[in-house]
Amino acid sequence: MIAPDPRHVPVLRDEVIAGLAIAAGETHVDATFGAGGYTRAMLAAGARVIAFDRDPDAVAEAAPLVAEAGDRLTLVPERFSRLDGALAERGVDGVDGIAFDIGVSSMQLDRAERGFSFQADGPLDMRMGQEGPTAADFLNTADEGEIADVIFQLGEEPKARRIARAIVAARPLSRTAELAAVVRKAIGMRPGDKKDPATKTFQAIRIHLNAELDELEDGLAAAERVLKPGGRIAVVTFHSSEDRIVKRFLRTRSGATPAGSRHRPATEAARVPSFEDVAKPVRPGEAELARNPRSRSATLRVARRSAAPAWPVVSKGLSS
């Protein structure tokens, strides 16, 4: 029997598993393996699990669980935006459920050397897949306007231009503590502030560097293509931009977009809904907030796949 890992309880784990309504013998996807919290719960419920993670550290550290689970667990070192292609390559043409836990994992946040957090000094990295340009590369080469746009749009930071100006003036930057200090000085930090002034900037840079919103849009569309009729999708988000994408995707695909909307093309209105039974959003209760303060901004959305064909992907823009 696969036991839960007491060191890591993922946000809204029980609610996610309940939303997936797992039956023994089904095949489910954990699109964001991380430390394996959802995967363990899926296995305990009797599912065969195919888990995805683009982080080499997460894949390497999953070895004991993979060995324990045997042929009931397949770990795929891929971005979840490729889940339909990766499943096809493994001879899987449909699954019964898919869970997404969007954003950075606790494992990544807690390791200073990964550069995701300002809580401890580390290199300005922030790469989930540990490849490509780092956060330092972006901040030291992008122009002030681009940096400001990223911080404003992805961090919803009203003082983005002031921060971008300060970042350019302080270049080159190489450490998380340096960036945090620049942001705090640029916009001010008062004793007793509930949120560190650097929070939104770090979040924005991370989302930009890892193309997280594009990944989410592509991942949702891929999930639509591989879910069997009656299969369920459960998505946990931590940021308003992420939640808007999920909300609009499920609203549109379930036919709930109001008729006559100027944002809704006529061809979209004529399509048969590919999702149904879209549940009300779920947020953490007091017990979860006490156990894990990071869950405060979490939102879970669950829906069931209909028997209709997947909609064609025409263009980006689900977050608008």
Your description of this structure?
Helix 2 (37-44) links the parallel strand 1 and strand 2. The longest helix has 15 residues, at 212-226. The chain has a 7-stranded mixed β-sheet, with helices on both faces. Helix 8 packs across helix 9 (160-170). It has 15 helices and 7 strands. The mean pLDDT is 91. It folds into 2 domains: 13-107 and 212-305, Vaccinia Virus protein VP39 (Rossmann fold); 130-208, DNA polymerase, domain 1 (Orthogonal Bundle). With 320 residues, the chain is α/β, with parallel strands linked by helices.
Report the average pLDDT across residues.
Answer: 91
Ends: how far apart? Answer: 44 Å
Q: Within the CATH hierarchy, at the fold level, what is the topology of the largest domain?
A: Rossmann fold
SSE order, as H and E? HEHEHHEHEHHHHHHHEHHEHE
Summed up, the domain count is 2
CATH homologous superfamily identity of the largest domain:
Vaccinia Virus protein VP39
**What is the gyration radius calculated from CA atoms?**
20 Å
Determine the structural class based on helices, strands and strand pairing. alpha/beta
Describe the protein's topology:
Elements: H1 13-20, E1 27-30, H2 37-44, E2 48-52, H3 56-61, H4 63-69, E3 73-76, H5 83-89, E4 95-101, H6 106-109, H7 135-141, H8 144-155, H9 160-170, H10 176-187, H11 199-209, H12 212-226, E5 227-237, H13 240-253, H14 266-270, E6 275-276, H15 286-291, E7 299-305
Parallel strand pairs: 1-2, 1-4, 2-3, 4-5
Antiparallel strand pairs: 5-7, 6-7
Helix pairs in contact: 1-2, 5-12, 8-9, 8-11, 9-10, 12-13
